Each structure stands twice: as structure tokens, then as C-alpha cells.
Amino acid sequence: MASTILLPLTHIQSFSHSQNFAKPLLLQRIPLSSSLSISNSHSKYVPAKAVSSYRGGTQAAIKQESIDTLTSESAKDNQTNPLSSKLVLVVGGTGGVGQLVVASLLRRNVKSRLLLRDPEKATTLFGEQDGELMQVYKGDTRRPEDLDPSIFEGVTHVICCTGTTAFPSKRWDADNTPEKVDWEGVRNLVSALPSSVKRVVLVSSIGVTKSNELPWSIMNLFGVLKYKKMGEDFLQRSGLPFTIIRPGRLTDGPYTSYDLNTLLKATAGQRRAVLIGQGDKLVGEASRIVVAEACIQVLDMEFTEGKIYEISSVEGEGPGTDAAKWEELFKGAQSQ
Fold first, then answer.
1. Higher pLDDT, 226 or 70
2. For strand 26-31 and strand 4-9, is the pairing parallel, antiparallel, or unpaired?
3. Phi and psi at residue 171, in whole multiples of 5°?
4. Which intervals hold domain NAD(P)-binding (predicted)?
5. Does 91 fall in a domain?
6. Is residue 16 situated within a structural domain?
7. Which pLDDT band holds residue 68 (cuts at 50, 70, 90)?
């Protein structure tokens, strides 16, 4: 008799605020030995440990010694970090910033729920995780029908790190353009979120208010800054509690070819010092590691609610994961 797993399959329908979202969660038993396709667009919960089964034996590519090291390190962290009451939905959790956000949440023992177009990537990057600590849902923010209410059940915080390239590239294939990702995707996500969410953190970009000025007008030739600003504006009008992080040109990573153990050891090189400003005045580069940490830090800073911050990183010693130092930086930006 074939082994089986349980995959909760949600009832999908087009999103509308006027519709009643109370629906039962359906369970479908799927034999592991059968051909299991996850390429359809319907949202479904995929247990993190089950994702590796989709590739048969190929998931052995994840180095076991890395997972063993992570387990040992996580056990030490868990002694000082009890399981958090937060449930953070990370959208774009396998991208350059998002994967670092997820790795840091796991390190902190904070429960995360990933909304991914390709759930297999979660296991490639993060290994097999306890389903209580990390959950993976299949869905695409560009498709409102994918954003079933069950995805957001119990979610307390949201970090949205989705994005694409500013100029036409292979990443634009399959309609992955700035308009679809930075505008329509953000709009669809924000529209689907319940009012109970305590904070939505959106990663945007410096220069969004200066898209008609040099040098920003060059970056905006294909509309990336315009569409990011439209996404920002929609979030601000939504009534949801928000914080917007606008990084400079992203550096360090993405670490998409590595595993979680590598992500946890990633450093920002010599550019560890952090500059935070407001009013879209900052220029320069920002380490993805610094941006990911900023997204997590603001979740616990009430005074950052409803605020927009620009962030860049420069040479020097930085705040690391020290909450007091980050609070000083964010408060310093507001006093400028």
C-alpha cells in the first residue's frame, strides 16, 4: 500500500470584499507514489517536510551535514528563544531579501508561513522544517484567485519582499513585469489581507517619489519606480497598519543557490553600518542582509507603524540583530 500525505486543498474563487470567506478546509489524500503536480495555480498548503517528496530522490542534493549543523544551532537558539506567538506571512520568501527574512525568523524561532509560486524552492533553501515553525502555501499574488482566505488564517504580521528587475530580462518571462509584480501583485495581496493583521511591511525602493528626476528617471524607463509607488500608495490607503522600507541598490546575494545553513552564516561584509532616513533623501546601496533585518525589527516597534523609511548600508560596524541599536536608528531618522 502506497504511503500517503495529507494536503489541505482550499476552495478557490475570485477575491471580492463583498463575498463571504467562511469556507471549510478540504483534505485530499494523495499517494506519494503517484505523479503529484504542483504547477496548477490553485492555492494549497504544502507541509514543508512533504515538499521534498515532489522531486523523488533528487532532494538529496541538500547537504545533510548542513541540515545537521542547522538543527544543532537551532536547538541552542530555541533554549533562549521560545516559540513566538507571531505568525509571519512572508511573500517572496525565496527571493534575495525574502530568503534572508525566512532564515532569520527560523533562527529566532518565529513561526513563518511562505506564499510561493514554487513550493519546492522552500525545501531547497530551508531544508525540512517542523510544520509548526514553517508552513508553505502555493500561490501567486498576480492572481487574485490564488489568494484564498485560508492562507491568511492566524497570520499576525506580513512581510512582502516581492520584486523583479527594473529593465527587461529573463525574469520578465511569464508576465513577471514590474506592473504585474510591484503594482498588481501588491494590490491583490493587500486587498486579500484580513483587518486583524497587526503590521504589513512592504519592501519598496528609494527614488519612488523622484521617478521623473535623474538618475531615477533612467531606472524608471520601464516603470518600476512608478509601479512600486502605486503599490505603496495602495497599502497606505488600505487602512492596514503598515511600515514601508525603501532600500538603496541591493547588494550581498541573492543566495538562491545555497542552503539554510549558508544563509544563517551570511554577513554583510564590510558594509554593516546602517543609515536610515525619511523623505526619500538617501542614496547608495543597501545590503540584503541589512534590509531583511530591518523588516523583522520594525515588527516590534510600535512607533514605526504608518511610517516610511529609506535604508542604506555603508562600511563600518552595524547594529547586527541588536534591537536597541535598531530602535535608536529608526528613532533617529524620525528626528531628522
1. 226
2. antiparallel
3. -65, -15
4. 92-300
5. yes
6. no
7. very low
CA distance linking residue 282 with residue 141, whole number of Å: 29
The rounded Cα 215 to chain-centroid distance in angstroms is 28
| Residue 277 lies inside a defined structural domain of this protein | yes
User: What's the pLDDT at 128?
Assistant: 86
Nearest-angstrom CA–CA distance, 29 and 6: 5
Alpha carbons within 13 angstroms on the beta-carbon side of residue 80 total 6
Instruction: State the pLDDT at residue 275.
Output: 96
CATH of the domain at 219: 3.40.50.720
Q: Please state the three-class secondary structure of the chain as a single string.
A: CCCEEEEEECCCCCCCCCCCCCCCCEEEEEECCCCCCCCCCCCEEEEHHHHHHHHCCHHHHCCHHHHHHHHHHHHHHHHHCCCCCCEEEEECCCCCCHHHHHHHHHHHCCEEEEEECCCHHHHHHHCCCCCCCEEEEECCCCCHHHCCHHHHCCCCEEEECCCCCCCCCHHHHHHCCHHHHHHHHHHHHHHHCCCCCCEEEEECCCCHHHCCCCCHHHHCCCCHHHHHHHHHHHHHHCCCCEEEEEECEEECCCCCCCCHHHHHCCCCCCECEEEEECCCCCCCEEEHHHHHHHHHHHHHCHHHCCEEEEEEEECECCCCCCHHHHHHHHHHHHCC
pLDDT tens per residue across span 166-199: 999 988 998 999 999 999 999 999 999 999 999 9
Can you read off the three cell numbers belonging to residue 130? 517542523
Band of the pLDDT at 91, cuts 50, 70, 90? very high
Burial class (CB in 10 A: 0-12, 13-18, 19+), 310: buried
| Domain that includes residue 291, residue range | 4-8+21-334
Counting the structural domains of the chain, the total is: 1
Residue 15 has pLDDT above 60, yes or no: no
pLDDT at 67 exceeding the cut of 70: no
